[in-house]
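[STRUCTURE TOKENS]
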Amino acid sequence: MANYEAMDSATLEGPVDRRHLQRQTLGDSSLEREILSLFRRQSATVFARLAEAREHKERRDLAHTLKGSARAIGAWRVAAAAEAVEAAGPAADLGTLGGALAEADAAISHILAA
């Protein structure tokens, strides 16, 4: 689990913490690219399902899924926004989470295009 208080501000500023991702993939750039591609696909699908979900348990479970996936790649803003949705219940506003996902997606696009 991420300890947000212990992270420096530079780590939290970017949509994807590349140092964290490199540690997670043991420096394997091919694996990094594969994981980022999987995150993009999964997060888009899960967010769409979350936007359509009406039951509290389903929304909470989907937000929890996004939170875990985001933490795995170092998308700390996505993780924090998903955690807020998870805690907020059925009336949670998805705007912050959608914005964080859009930023992460743009960063991932840039990484994958390099």
Residues 17-113 form a domain with the Four Helix Bundle (Hemerythrin (Met), subunit A) fold (CATH 1.20.120.160). The two ends are 29 Å apart (CA to CA). Confidence is low (pLDDT under 50) at residues 1-11.
